[in-house]
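Collaborator request log, item 7. Partner lab (contact: R.S.) asked for a structural prediction of Phosphoribosylglycinamide formyltransferase to inform their binding assays.
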Amino acid sequence: MPGRRTIPPERTVPRARIAVLISGTGSNMAALLYASRLSDAPFEIVLVASNDPSAPGLALAAAEGIATFALAHKGLPRAEHEAQMEAAILAADADYIALAGYMRVITAETVSHWSGRMLNIHPSLLPKYTGLDTHARAIAAGDSHGGVSVHLVTEELDAGEVLGQIAVAIQPGDTADTLARRVLFAEHQLYPRVLADYVSRGNNPEHLLARVRELALALPETHERSSHGSPGFRVGSEKSGKFFAHFADQHHGVEHIGLLVKTGSMDELENLVETQPQAYYKPAYYGASGWVGLILNRPGVDWNHIGEWLERSWRAVAPPRLTKLMNAADDF
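Returned to partner:
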């Protein structure tokens, strides 16, 4: 199975499409916009939308050639206003939403629809000081630092997973306004970096391996062992265990970051590759033995499905005493 590893091709990864929602000057939107103009930026801004047609950030975006959309929320039911905002976002074919000073609470329905794809920036070191008046509250509490957090949006206000933070020292005599001005500098540094890292994670081998590792090692009596220089996962003892999965980062010149697992037959392998080439490929060397490659560096990977494949492959090589226990648990 081992062979000489060829130099992999350069990854040609499409940039993530971002819709930014603002309510005012849009300084964080501007930070994202200008960061997106860097040659190695993994995202582009495709829409700037606002609930205030007079928001200064709209004019800045338009001057930079970015599509804009504005709809005043006053006089409209929340659900109707939000539906029209989302329609504009969908029409722009956005992959993610970045809230940047958008002063509207998003409904649970929209949050659910964009779960894992909506980010927000908040001027505190979450979980401290959710909501408003964050700087005044930090000063009143005698904190040594205020700061800023970027987090995923969930139904609970400012409670989603924190993706990045910067602490900003509170100086003697600080007011909410003076602290806010310094925190804003940190915001403009943090948001573009965190957004870039987040939208790139699906093409980051370290991130993908970490997700595979978590799923593989959750199965009974498994351990990790390198195979031909790449991570592999075995079931059974360290001495006699058998591989049930291999992680492949562009091996043998293919463009994919893949997870190799065992199929039931060559017919199944060939059928998967032929009918779903966007999700499966036939790996060099391993493919001849009935292993299929699951493409991990693609949009919309279903990690529950990846977990099911890992378990199936594990069952194919695990000792009977382990599969009997697993089967009994399934029956129960």
